[in-house]
Amino acid sequence: MSEQLLDGPARDRIKTDTDATLFVEAGAGSGKTHALVDRVTTLVLRDGVPLRTIAAVTFTEKAGAELRDRLRVEFEKARKGPAGPLADEALDDLDSASIGTLHAFAQQLLLAHPIEAGLPPLIDVLDEVGSSVAFEERWAELQQQLLDDDSIAEPLLLAMAVGVELKHLRSLARLFGNDWDLIDERVLVDPPELVAMPDLTGLIAAAAQLGGAVDSCRDPEDRLLPKLHAIRDLGVMLEAATDQESQLSYLQALRGLKVGKIGRKENWPDVAKMRSDCAEVVEVAGSLVELLLDACLRHLSHWIAERVLESAEVRRAEGRLEFHDLLVLARNLLRRDASVRSALHERYERLLLDEFQDTDPIQIELAVRIAAGADGDAPDWQDVEVPDGRLFVVGDPKQSIYRFRRANIATYLTAQDLLGETVTLTTNFRTVPPVLDWINHVFSTLIQPQEAAQPTYHALTPHRTTTPTTA
């Protein structure tokens, strides 16, 4: 059938050119699962690559189960042909084959090398519910430590004085936990500076000057007058305050004043200047609050980040891991241990990555370092040389929707540039021509290529020629 399709040569190459590293861009409905099945069956039945030495990483457990079922059908068919012994061997290996999600694959790597990974022989992997319960337990303990630690008391009190609540810090702790491997390079780079109240002399003087202007108002009912009284009174309280918490609360009150265009022209010598001066005081107060709040949050972030890392280390030592722990520990293991890379290079002759546009960037680093073996020790995975044919990647950048889970289109495009050759599947087996015509017209207009941000749009070609009718 592939000879009759416009992308037939690409499909034939996916199936037969198993000595090449290919990066397949598969449009919606283009039969990428079928392409994966073709690739694996060729590797097993023609090239004699044992199925147990092939790893196929899918985005979901459902996709992994579908791929496994389709392979079973193909191997059952092949049992009656000349490749029967190879098909029988593949069927024996199928249930235990490395076909599944990225997290399941990372867990296999760690279970194969627990000592090198610094893990106990048996590990327990928490599901999403278990991880949520464990986080709540960690947060309860962390919250108590936060309230009891005198070293963080001042930044905490100042932050709470301007509206930061414990629930906000809880959210921060959860976000840090989701990406704890980035904490060292992005949060703990430099120790935070001391929290100190900025110089308030100029602001206090400006508030007093505005307070003195109340006598120039010709109408005691003018709506701008109460604003001047409020600025004057807050300035007086700000000057008299003896602690930073009180000062910050007065600054916050100043920041919250809204002046706008109130005040009548005939009631003031220069109402526009009066409004402008009031707005400037409010703006300066807001800037001072932001400066102090930033310093406080840096301290709190640093404090929380250190303890999130400590929690990750405890989970590793106890072998009680969460999904993200699996990825980070597997990546760290492959980065530092040449013998493990060499062993996994021998174990996995071929690696196939599905739905690459929506997976964690750690996935490509795991695959590249395994494919390279002992030589894959470059600090940056992009500098690792991958032997031909070891990797096969499938994805569709137009369907990348999981940025909140660290999927990054820039990583996709970088990998596409570095790994092998790109082949494109454009025949759509799912959609009727009128719909595809509209999609191609709209998407070709909206999707314009941008370096490291937006790939080129490849128009889809319909395979279906008629619209189904209903009785």
TrEMBL record:
It comes from the Bacteria. The keyword Hydrolase applies. GO terms for molecular function: 3'-5' DNA helicase activity; ATP binding; DNA binding; hydrolase activity. Keywords: ATP-binding, Helicase, Hydrolase, Nucleotide-binding. GO terms for biological process: recombinational repair. It holds the Pfam family UvrD-helicase. GO terms for cellular component: cytosol; exodeoxyribonuclease V complex. The keyword ATP-binding applies. ATP binds at residues 26-33. InterPro entries: DNA_helicase_UvrD/REP (IPR000212), P-loop_NTPase (IPR027417), UvrD-like_ATP-bd (IPR014016). Residues 5-432 form the UvrD-like helicase ATP-binding domain. Gene3D superfamilies: P-loop containing nucleotide triphosphate hydrolases (3.40.50.300). This is DNA helicase UvrD.
